[in-house]
Amino acid sequence: MPRPLLLALAALAALLSCSTAPKPRTEVNERKNRAAEFTRSGNERFAQGDYRQALSFFTLALNENVAVDNLEGICSSYNSIGMALLAQGEK
Question: Most exposed among 16, 40, 62, 65, judged by the fewest C-beta atoms under 10 Å?
């Protein structure tokens, strides 16, 4: 195999391996905390009857949980989103 091709394949392998590296622990904790804050804000809006705004907060929480593969948070976010949609009258 020609040397430039080997170098290109090695560079490609290195690049691909970087994209699947786990996120640093501090970033994971920060994003989980941010998701918890969004959920808290969504619950406050839900209690006030502002279901549209609550849905927005719950969706933001879902995005943060998905970004760090927080399965418990993802399930909780989907549950909250479902409650907000039902409260708005959507099925």
Answer: 16
